[in-house]
């Protein structure tokens, strides 16, 4: 993703940005009501007294301040609930929740509209027609507030719940997987074997700070390659933890040492590195967060195996989506052929999803049964690498369960699942 688009996406997810824009619209509406009357060529059929508009604006301003304060306290409580009952990594999704941001921004904008309207009204800037316009706009704002309140009440019934938060994590992970399936190498050409494909004369571009790669500006890297008639080999994909001297990429020497250093610094600037991982271009992070939800549910303090089973089902759906696009990257023509990017390893996706769940749920037969059934289903999908990764996780989970389960009957039930054969497809043409 280009750096400017990524920065714009990060900026628009901030609550203060949305609240500022809608608040500015409220202020602008109150001011325009005093200016627009000179452009109305006809007389209004009625007149509105200043007292009528004053009372409405006073009620609007005072009530919106109270509602906004109450809504913020509810949001903070929901964030704390998600941090304690789900996982702290899912809190960002609630902070970036668009319905919540829209409602709070509407409340703030209505409050500013009421305050500014009262101030301008007290100065006598509104004429007869201006007060009518202000009255109409005030009624429209009240209708908008009522609609927002009704949506907010419905939204509050789900905000911060375990199921609702898990839905958000699954949806964010699904979007990241679909984006990676559309562009398996971020629009670049594949880097299959770094040891063999990268020329020995290339020099590494090393990270300067400690953090996680959040975004790579592949179009900018492609422009650099076109200018220098060379290639760039990326090493650190989004989600990679980097530290000083970690190779972000390998580039060709630019001539003198100073020119090479400047070229490496230019390449390094295309990598956005932050303190936390992001859901956007990192499907592994979403699977890891879902795994954390299951681990928290199986902890002795929560003891909620049902949530862990639900999470296993969600991860099975997500990985089955990955299986549908497994192997399609060979047929895709890269948009930026001069840039080479490594692919996501399917085995890493399975480890992020199931390894820790199998470890912490080794002694829970209900979790192990669902885990083995899910892995059995996944072992029948995708390519050979995908099926091998599913069988590998199934084997590891069985080894852990064999040592943790006390009853031989439980171990026998798990072995029966492992011995199930893949059903044969009926012969004949598909309809």
Number of helical stretches of at least 4 residues: 16
Total number of beta strands: 8
Strand order of the largest sheet: 1-8-4-6-2
Specify the biggest β-sheet.
5 strands, mixed
Radius of gyration: 29 Å
Strand content: 5-15%
The assembly state of the depicted protein chains is single chain
List keywords for this structure.
431 residues; alpha/beta; Aldehyde Oxidoreductase, domain 3; 3 domains; five-stranded mixed β-sheet; 16 helices; 8 strands; flat; disordered C terminus
Task: Please provide a written account of the structure.
The chain is an alpha/beta fold. It has 16 helices and eight strands. It has helices at about 5-10, 15-35, 50-85, 90-95, 100-120, 130-155, 160-180, 195, 220-230, 255-270, 285-300, 305-325, 345-360, 365-380, 385-405, 410-420, and strands spanning about 190, 205, 210-215, 230-235, 240, 245-250, 270-275, 335-340. The longest helix is centred in the N-terminal third of the chain and has 36 residues, at about 50-85.
């Amino acid at each position: 993703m280009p750096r400017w688009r990524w920065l714009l996406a990060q900026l628009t997810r901030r609550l203060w940005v949305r609240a500022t824009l809608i608040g500015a619209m409220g202020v602008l509406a109150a001011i325009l009501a005093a200016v627009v009357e000179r452009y109305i060529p006809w007389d209004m059929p009625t007149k509105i007294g200043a007292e009528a508009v004053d009372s409405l604006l006073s009620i609007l301003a005072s009530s919106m301040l109270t509602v906004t304060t109450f809504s913020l306290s509810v949001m903070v409580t929901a964030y704390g609930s998600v941090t304690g009952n789900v996982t702290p990594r899912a809190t960002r999704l609630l902070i970036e929740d668009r319905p919540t941001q829209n409602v709070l921004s509407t409340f703030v904008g209505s409050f500013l509209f009421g305050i500014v309207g009262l101030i301008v009204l007290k100065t006598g800037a509104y004429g007869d027609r201006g007060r009518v316009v202000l009255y109409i706009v005030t009624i429209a704002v009240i209708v908008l507030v009522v609609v927002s309140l009704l949506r907010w009440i419905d939204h509050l019934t789900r905000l911060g719940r375990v199921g609702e938060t898990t839905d958000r994590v699954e949806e964010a992970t699904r979007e990241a997987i679909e984006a990676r399936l559309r562009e398996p190498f971020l629009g670049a050409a594949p880097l299959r074997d770094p040891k063999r494909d990268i020329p020995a004369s290339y020099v590494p571009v090393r990270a300067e700070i400690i953090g996680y790669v959040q975004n790579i500006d592949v179009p900018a890297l492609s422009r650099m390659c076109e200018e220098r008639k060379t290639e760039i080999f990326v090493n650190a994909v989004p989600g990679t933890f980097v530290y000083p001297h970690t190779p972000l990429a390998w580039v060709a020497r630019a001539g003198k040492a100073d020119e090479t250093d400047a070229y490496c610094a230019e390449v390094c600037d295309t990598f956005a590195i932050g303190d936390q991982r992001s859901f956007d271009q990192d499907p592994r992070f979403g699977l890891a967060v879902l795994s954390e939800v299951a681990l928290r549910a199986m902890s002795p303090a929560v003891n909620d195996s049902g949530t862990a089973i639900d999470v296993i089902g969600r991860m099975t759906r997500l990985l089955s989506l990955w299986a549908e696009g497994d192997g399609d990257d060979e047929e895709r023509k890269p948009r930026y052929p001069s840039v080479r990017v490594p692919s996501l390893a399917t085995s890493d996706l399975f480890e992020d999803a199931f390894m820790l769940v199998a470890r912490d749920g080794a002694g829970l037969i209900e979790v192990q049964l669902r885990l083995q059934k899910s892995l059995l289903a996944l072992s029948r999908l995708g390519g050979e690498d995908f099926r091998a990764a599913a069988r590998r996780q199934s084997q590891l989970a069985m080894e852990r369960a064999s040592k943790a389960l006390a009853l031989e009957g439980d171990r026998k039930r798990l072995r029966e699942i492992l011995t199930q054969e893949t059903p044969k497809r009926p012969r004949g043409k598909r309809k």
